[in-house]
Prior knowledge:
By secondary structure, this protein is α+β, with helices and mostly antiparallel strands. Helices cover 25% and strands 31% of the residues.
Amino acid sequence: MKNKSVVIGLSGGVDSSVAAVLLKEHGYNVIGVTLKLWQKTGKFQDESYIVEAENIAKRIEIEHIVVDAQKEFKQTVVKQFINEYLNGRTPSPCTLCNNQIKWKLLADIADKNNYDFIATGHYVSIEHIDGFYYIKKGIDQVKDQSYFLWELTNNILKRSLTPLGNLNKTEVRRLASNYNLNDIFNKKESMSVCFLQNTDYRTFINNNIIDKTLIKKGKIYNTQGAEIGTHNGIAYYTIGQKNGLNITAQETFYVKEIDAKNNSLIVSTKQELNKREILVNNLSFINIKDLHTYNGELTVKVRGYGLNPEKKCTVNFVNSKLLKVTFNDNAWAPAPGQPVVFYYGNLLLGGGITV
């Protein structure tokens, strides 16, 4: 019987490289795929990561292919990123990219070539429960990446392998050294959105829109409706932000609401940004019945301008497409457009988008 084949996203970093070696050690025929997603501005395109991935593939003796996905990435991830900010919302591009680009393209490659599985170097596990496939948080809580994978479907997960789910970062680095991958052993990791290239998102938006009139100055109001200042364009702000507000008040104010229709901001004190309830749409769950089964035992991650800790909550359906989430204690500055991700223990059930 021939070895099972698996196509793995290979970035040239330590995580995907170690994951590929682990799969090979377990007897899989491993094919590394590097996705070309974004071209740097300027004369030259930074393709060093492609060269690094090619070198890794040669060293660990696996097949390697490069897929140019720049068009899909720009039309799907970058376009939505810009449009959301222009409409006063705060996007999560990594979530969209994982679902619509990375895992989707790996699955397409597997389908076209009759490969059995797809794999990544994410720090998560996959668990099969009662006919459903769920993502489970990785044991390394610092590196756990489940929050960004809430949109992945049962059909994708049932054919996915995640070799790093039961390892922590220290163990992965040790394995890299054991596998003679010393040059990437302590490779610095990028923590920012890849296409921003460590620049401010406002600069990126301004550099990547043709119609500059889409960003225009407007008025700032307090919660009593009084005009107290001006802003530089709603695309440059998110809920909870306090910098960049041209106001005359002595008190420190934070963005509470963004009124895209009227090109205005509503600001308030920090305390007024605490919320006990939010509405969530764009729902995606492995098994929607889990919300009823575990209601009262659910925890939720919701990100705003700052990181909220995981919170206990209860949920109620407003209708089939809209969910009301009630936190046991306050969440600070949840922003429209941001994911709300639900867990039962370490099990990722699914999520949605803050209205």
